[in-house]
Amino acid sequence: MNFRSKLKNDTLGFQIAPMIDIVFLLLCFFVTTQIFSQWETEVDITLPSSSTGNMEARLPGEIIINIRTDGTFVINQQEFDDAGLAGVLTRIVEMFPGQPVLVRADVETPYKHIIKVLDVCRMVDIWNVSFATTEKE
After folding, report:
1. Mean pLDDT value of segment 16-39
2. Average of pLDDT values for 65-76?
3. Whether the Cβ atoms of residue 61 and residue 100 lie closer than 8 Å to each other
4. Domain CATH code at residue 53
5. Is 32 helix (H, G, I), strand (E, B) or coil?
6. Could you tell me if residue 21 is inside a domain?
7. Number of domains forming the structure of the chain
8. Is the distance from CB of 66 to CB of 75 less than 8 angstroms?
9. 129 and 43 Cβ atoms separated by less than 8 Å
10. Residues 6+ apart with CB under 8 A from 19
11. Is-contact 76 40, C-beta < 8 A?
């Protein structure tokens, strides 16, 4: 008996199942890395410590305003002055009302620079403002 003549020598076509697996894994990888890249933190800012504060979960789309000791404001790795900060926050509030803002100021930052940020937030009608601190050691 010759069983080989009944078997067809079909060439394998494009396998869709492994391709879907690979694309799904790549999608999971890029979504995960994108979440971690959203933490807009400045390395040269030392946050003040607090004994009663707790680390809240970040809100989706939260704007992080970093205030350096010299009074420059940094949002998304871009430096702004007072007028530039007001312009950026105005455009954000027009598109997304109720936008949360996280203020990260250095320990050595003069209080007047923090008040400037709060004044600008009030002018553009941002009411959800929080301050970043670290835990007391």
Report:
1. 81
2. 88
3. yes
4. 3.30.420.270
5. helix
6. no
7. 1
8. yes
9. no
10. none
11. yes
Over 60: is that where the pLDDT of 40 sits?
no
Q: Count the neighbouring beta carbons within 10 Å of the beta carbon of residue 38.
A: 12
Q: Per-residue pLDDT for 53 more than 70? A: no
The two three-digit tokens of residue 136, written as one number:
């007391």
Tell me the angle at which helices 111-123 and 82-95 cross, rounded to the nearest 10 degrees.
Answer: 40
In-domain check, residue 44? no
In a domain, 53, yes or no: yes
Does 47 have pLDDT greater than 90? no
Task: Give the domain extent around 68.
Answer: 49-135
Looking at every residue in the chain, the average pLDDT score rounds to 81
Which pLDDT score, from 0 to 100, does residue 3 have?
Answer: 62
- 81 Cβ partners below 8 Å, 6+ apart? 72, 73
Structure tokens that stand for 46 in this block: 């030392």
Inside any domain, residue 26: no
Amino acid at 6: K
Is 89:121 a contact under the CB 8 Å cutoff? yes
